[in-house]
Specification:
The chain is an alpha/beta fold. It contains ten helices and eight strands. The protein has a six-stranded parallel β-sheet, sandwiched between helices. A two-stranded antiparallel sheet has the order 2-3. Helix 5 runs parallel beside helix 10. It is globular and about 60 Å long. The two termini are 14 Å apart.
């Protein structure tokens, strides 16, 4: 049984698309805010890949988001204010997340294992009522998921072996990387993360340790496993 649960955040815990579109609509009225949000997010992986591949040193995601914001704004023919980049600190949680995490927090250590920086994750936790015990992930590893050291650095920080830590994510590739590093895995689908036409991560792609429809069901499953008599 896991002693700690670490979580992907963007998409798994919070609805980035609706939240970012709302912030864009306020800061840049007259644009297609959803299209802008999708374009901004599309720059996410390429920006991190330059770090993962060694093309540039570690740069916190706050700075990558700001760079990507101006890149996308130029494409849309507008000038975006720098403060719009902080919208990634004010993303709303999926409805099941606060109650599910509150239940899980009674029995497990909880922490993000996100590509977001410590500052970003701390401010997002306050906005979205995410009861983390600590902030883990990219900044302590100085690299980005799915590099194995990001998951392993989180385990090391918790002073737990990987097999006592479970990664929770809505993305199959995240879980595949965590499993390869020796962690437990839990899949919670977010079928509208990318909007109504989403085609990716609708179903588990492997036999993850736990597959649950939401965080409340995940909590119930872990509680049931904890109470199950041993052999």
């Amino acid at each position: 049984m896991p002693q700690a649960l670490i979580f992907d955040v963007f998409g798994t815990c919070v609805d980035w698309r609706s939240s970012i579109a709302r912030a864009v609509a306020k800061a840049l009225p007259g644009l297609d805010a959803v299209a802008f949000a999708d374009a901004w997010r599309a720059e996410y992986q390429p920006a991190m890949e330059r770090v993962r591949s060694g093309g540039r040193g570690y740069v916190p995601l706050d700075d990558l988001h700001l760079e990507n914001l101006h890149r996308v704004a130029a494409r849309f023919g507008v000038s975006a204010p720098d403060h719009l980049a902080t919208a990634w600190e004010r993303l709303d949680p999926w409805p099941d997340v606060p109650p599910g995490l509150a239940t899980l927090h009674r029995t497990h250590i909880l922490a993000p294992c996100s590509n977001g920086s410590i500052a970003m994750m701390a401010r997002l936790a306050r906005h979205a009522a995410l009861p983390w015990d600590c902030i883990l992930g990219a900044e302590i590893a100085r690299d980005y998921k799915p590099k194995p050291q990001v998951y392993l650095a989180s385990c090391t920080a918790l002073r737990l072996p990987p097999e006592h830590v479970m990664m929770v994510a809505a993305h199959n590739d995240d879980l595949a990387a965590a499993r390869a590093a020796g962690l437990g895995t839990a899949f919670v689908a977010r079928p509208t993360e990318h909007g109504p036409g989403q085609t990716s991560d609708l179903h588990p792609s492997a036999d993850w340790d736990i597959v649950a429809p939401d965080f409340e069901a995940l909590a119930a499953r872990l509680q049931a496993d904890t109470n199950r008599p041993g052999p």
